[in-house]
Amino acid sequence: MKKWYQQVGSVILPPVILFGIVLVLWHVLVEVNEVESYLVPLPGDVWNAAQGNFSQLGQATWNTALAAVSGFGLSLLIGTITAFVFSQSVLIRRSFYPYAIFLQTVPIVAIAPLVINWFGTGLQSVIVVTVVISLFPIITSVTVGLTSVDKGLRELFVLNQASRWQTLLKLRMPHAVPYLVTGARTSSGLAVVGAIVGEFFAGYGSDHYGLGYLILQTSAQLRTDMLFATILASALLGVIMFVVVTWIGFKVLARWTYALEQS
Amino acid sequence: MRRLFCVLLLASGLVGCKPSSPTTTEPGEESGQQQKVTLALNWFPEAEHGGYYAALVNGHYREEGLDVEIQPGGPGVPVIQNVATGRVMFGIANADQVLVGRDKEADVVALLAPLQMSPRCIMVHEKSGIRRLQDLKNMTLAVGSGKAYLEYLKTKVSLENVKLVPYPGSIAMFLKNEDFGQQGYVFSEPFVASQKGGDPHVLMVSEIGFNPYTSLLITRGQTIKQQQELVAKMVRASARGWRDYLQNSTAVNEHIHKVNPEMDLASLAYGVEAIKPLCLPAELPAQQLGQMTLERWKTLADQLKEIDWIEPQFDPATAFQARFIDTGQQP
User: Could you report the per-residue pLDDT of B264-295, keeping only the tens digit for each?
Assistant: First the structure.
C-alpha cells in the first residue's frame, strides 16, 4: 500500500512536470521566432499581467464562478427531475427527449439574443445560458441510470409487491447515482463555458463583470498578455469545479454504493 | 460486384465535382496586367465602406492595375492583426485601433482617412429629453465591449445611475424600452429606428472631443517600404472612389446591397447623405478628402494615454503616412 504522499505525488507530479516543460518550450519558441507580443506573449508577461491586475482578475473569476455554480446547481435539479419523469413514462420520454437533444445541439449564439429579450441583461440571463449548456449531460446520464436497472432486480421488486415509488427510491435511484456523478463531471466543465459565453451576450454592469467580459475587453485592446491570463483563469476555474464535483462524487458513491471507481 | 460498380460510379462523380483550383498567385504579384490585392473590411459592408466599393465598381482600382478583392468583415474580425501579420494586404480600421495596435507592436500604418469626423454616437429617445452627453443619467446604456470611446466618455461625463449593458446588435431593445440608449453610427441605427417608428435622438461622441478618423485605409509598414508604387495606386484609386461615392452613389449602393442584403437601399441612400458632412466637413475641399494631420493623431494619442490604453511614451508620428494622398494642384 503506497504512502499517502506517494499517492498524491504520483497524481500531481506528472501534470506539473509537463506544465513546466510546456512553459519552457513556449518561452523559447516565442523568443527564437521573435513573435510580437500582441500575437503570443511570453509566459513571464502573462504572469506579470495576472499579478498586476490580480484584484480585477480575481473579482471577475468570482463573478463567473457564481454564475457557473448557480447554473450548474440548477442543471442538477432540473436535469434530475426531468430524468425522474422520463423514467416513469415511456410516452413522455419519447415525446420530450428529442427536444432535450435540441438543447444540446442548437448554437448558443442563436439562443442568447432570445434569452436576453426574455430575461434582460444581467446575472439571471448568464445563469439561463449556463443551464442551457450544462443541462443535457445530466438528463441523459440520470435517465440511463434510472432505466437501465438489471431486469432480475426489477422482477425481485415486483415479486415483493413494491410500489412504483418504492422501486424508484430503493432501486432506481441508488442505481442511478454513479451515472449522475459521471454526468455531473461533464456538466461542471460545461457550466463554466456556459457562464463565460453567457457573459459575452448578457452580462456586465460597469463594475460587475465576469471573465467573459474581461476576455472581450482585453482582446479588443490587444492586451494579449492579460487575455492569456484571463483564459488561464477560466481554465483553472473549470478544473477546480471538475475536481470538486469529482471529489463530492466519490464521497456520495462511497455512501450509496459499494463500487468505488478510480478516475 | 454490383456494389463495387456503384461505389466506383459515385467516386467518379465526386471527382468530376472537384472545384477548379484557385489561382496560385501571391498577393501583390502580377497576374497578367493586374496585381492581386485584398482589402479586409472591419464590419459588414455598409455606407462607411462606400468609397472603397465605388473604387471597385467604377473601375478606379482596375485603372491603376489593381485586382482588388474586398473581404466583408463582421463582429470581432481581427483586421489589425490580419494586416500586421500580412495575412491581408490592406484593411479598414479606426484611428484609435491603429494607435492601440501600434502600441502593442503591431506594424500597421494609416494611409487615408475618408471619414474626418467620427460617426460614433449615442442614440437616446427623443422623449427622454436628454440633449447632451452630460445629461446621460438614470437609464440603461447598451455599448460594445472594448471600445475606447466609452472609457474616454466615462472620464468626461458622470454617467450617474447609468446601467451599462452589452450592445445587442439590433435596435429591438431600444424600441421596447423608454429608459434605453445605445451606441451607434449616426448614419445607421438612428435611421433604422425612425423607420421602425421609434423616436431616436442622436448625441455625437465627437462633442466631448473624442474624434478619431474613421474607416481608415491601413496597411503593413513593411508593405509601404517594399511596394511603394502599389500603395500609392491603392490610395489614389480609393480616394477617387470616395469622391465618386459622395457625388453619385446609386450604382455602388446597389452593389453593396448585393453583397450585404441586410442593408436595404433606403438605409444606404440615407447613409451616403449622412456621411457627406463627415467626409468633407465645412472647410475641406473635395480634393483633400482623406487628409490626416499630426495634430489630430497627437490629440487622439493623448486621449488614449489619459485612459491608460497606450503607454505614455508612445509617439503617434509613425502611425500614419499621408504622403500618398493627392492634395491637388494647389501650391
Answer: 899 999 999 999 999 998 878 888 899 999 99
**Nearest Cα to Cα of residue B272 among B57, B45, B48, B44:** B48
Name the burial class of residue A149, with classes exposed (0-12), middle (13-18) and buried (19+) by CB atoms within 10 angstroms of its CB: middle
Report the candidate in B134, B137, B268 with the shortest Cα–Cα distance to residue B208.
B134
A181 Cα to chain B: minimum distance (Å): 36
Give tens-digit pLDDT for B71-112.
999 887 899 999 999 999 999 999 999 999 999 999 999 999
Which whole number is the average pLDDT over B192-202?
90
Q: Three-state SS for B6?
A: helix
Residues of chain B positioned with their CB less than 8 A from the CB of A116? 168, 173
ipTM over 0.90: no
The residue extents of the domains of chain B are 30-117+212-319, 120-208
- From chain A, the residues in CB contact with B100 under 8 A are 221-222
Instruction: Find, in chain A, the residue whose alpha carbon is nearest to that of B104.
Output: A38
Helix, coil or strand: residue B209: coil
Compare CB distances from A216 to B104, B146, B172 and report the shortest one's residue.
B146
Q: Treating both helix axes as pointing N-terminal to C-terminal, what angle do B265-279 and B50-57 enclose, rounded to 10 degrees? A: 110
What's this model's pTM, rounded to 2 decimal places? Answer: 0.83
pLDDT of residue B243: 94
3-state secondary structure of B67: strand
d(CA A127, nearest CA chain B) in Å: 16
Packing angle, helices A90-105 and A54-88, rounded to 10: 150
Tell me which residue has cell 456520495: A252
User: Looking only at Cα atoms, what is the longest distance across chain A?
Assistant: 76
Interface test with B, best of A38, A123, A209, A211 (most B CBs within 10 A): A38
The domain defined by B30-117+212-319 carries CATH number 3.40.50.150:
no
CA A162 to chain centre: 37
Mean pLDDT by 10 residues, chain A (263 residues): 79 89 94 88 93 93 95 95 91 91 84 83 88 93 91 90 85 88 94 92 72 90 94 95 92 68 45
Chain A nearest-CA distance from B139, in A, is: 12
pLDDT surpasses 50 at B114: yes
Q: Judge whether residue B155 has pLDDT over 50.
A: yes
Contact A153, A171 (CB under 8 A): yes
As assigned by CATH, the class of the B120-208 domain is alpha beta
Contact (CB<8Å) A216/B172:
no
Determine, for residues A121 and B166 on separate chains, whether the beta-carbon distance falls below 8 Å.
yes
pLDDT for the residue B328: 53
The one-character DSSP state at B293 is: -
Residues A23-75: tens digit of each pLDDT: 999 999 999 998 888 889 999 999 999 999 999 999 999 999 999 999 999 99
Domain layout of chain A by residue ranges: 1-35, 42-256
Q: How far is CA A25 from CA A30, A42, A236, in A?
A: 9, 11, 21
CATH number of A42-256: 1.10.3720.10
Test B146 with A223 for CB contact under 8 angstroms: no
- Examine domains B30-117+212-319 and B120-208 and report if their fold is the same: yes
- For chain B, the first-to-last Cα distance in angstroms comes to 85
